[in-house]
Amino acid sequence: MAWGSPWAERRQGPPRVNLLPGEIHERRLVRRQRAGLGAAAVLLLAVLGLWYTMQTRELGEARREADAERATAAGLQARRAELQPYAVLEGQISAAEQLRSRVYAREIRFSSVMRDISAVMPDNVWLTQMNAAFTSANGQAGTAGATASGSAGSAAAAGGAEAAATPGSPGAGSPVANITFSGAGLGHVDVGTFLRAFGTAPKKDGTQVYLNPYFTTSQKNTLEGGQTTVTFTATVDMSTAVFSGRFQPQGQQGTVAP
């Protein structure tokens, strides 16, 4: 007969007698330990299985999102390829606009010049010839002219180097072109009125278009029947405000291109 273990004797209450052999008690203890370990292993496997399931689900969602992103990127690339010809066309249009802007940067529309002259022309003065002289982009001088009955088209003009001239005299104020007039009037006063009128001629954006009106000659003549006339030649300069400003970027009208 075997008595209980010493720890059982220290428990409160009446003494207990263990009649089972020690080997059986140990085997039961081992079985309980193995059952506990098995339950812990099962629980661990269950937790691992749940974690694996969640990770697998998240991985599947991530793959689906990646596939959707790749499909979107492929669609955008295809759309970009479709729109590429338009981008090329836009670049060509921009280059053409820049070229047109440079070509027309120094354009003088003599239809506007003629309109201004007709607006300041007195009733007793008439023109017989008009010539325009300007400087091309490469610094070479050029001319364009028309008789009083003809019409003058537009011409590209460029400003030359600033001349060291007395204020008010031809060439002062860095003009880009000048006009030479030949004409006649009924008197010196009428001819003088015509030249002075350029001082009040229409301005462009607040800038004086015509500069330095100047007599070259003025001669009084007597016609048959005692009628007197005055023949004259005169010049007037034009500033950069005479440029038409067509096809120029906003805010750059009237400027001189390099």
How does this structure look, described?
With 258 residues, the protein is of the alpha+beta class. The chain has two domains: 20-103; 107-242, Alpha-Beta Plaits (2-Layer Sandwich), CATH 3.30.70. Helices cover 41% and strands 22% of the residues. It is built from four helices and seven strands; from the N terminus they run ααβαββββαββ. It has helices at residues 6-9, 22-103, 110-120, 188-196; strands spanning 107-109, 125-135, 141-147, 154-156, 177-185, 210-222, 228-238. It has a five-stranded antiparallel beta sheet. A two-stranded antiparallel ribbon has the order 1-4. The radius of gyration is 52 Å and the shape is rod-shaped.
Counted by DSSP, the helix tally is 4
**CATH level-3 fold name of the largest domain:** Alpha-Beta Plaits
CATH class of the largest domain: Alpha Beta
How many strands, which pairing sense, and closed or not: the largest β-sheet?
Answer: 5 strands, antiparallel
Could you report the average pLDDT, rounded to the nearest whole number? 80
Shape: rod-shaped
| Structural class determined from secondary elements | alpha+beta
Q: Which ranges are low-confidence, i.e. pLDDT below 50, for 5 or more consecutive residues?
A: 145-163
Number of domains: 2
Beta-strand proportion? 15-25%
CATH architecture of the largest domain: 2-Layer Sandwich
Quaternary status = single chain
| Fraction of helical residues | 40-55%
Using only C-alpha atoms, the radius of gyration works out to: 52 Å
Number of strands: 7
State the strand order across the main sheet. Answer: 3-2-5-7-6
Instruction: Report, as a whole number of angstroms, the end-to-end distance.
Output: 124 Å
Question: What is the N-to-C succession of helices and strands?
Answer: HHEHEEEEHEE
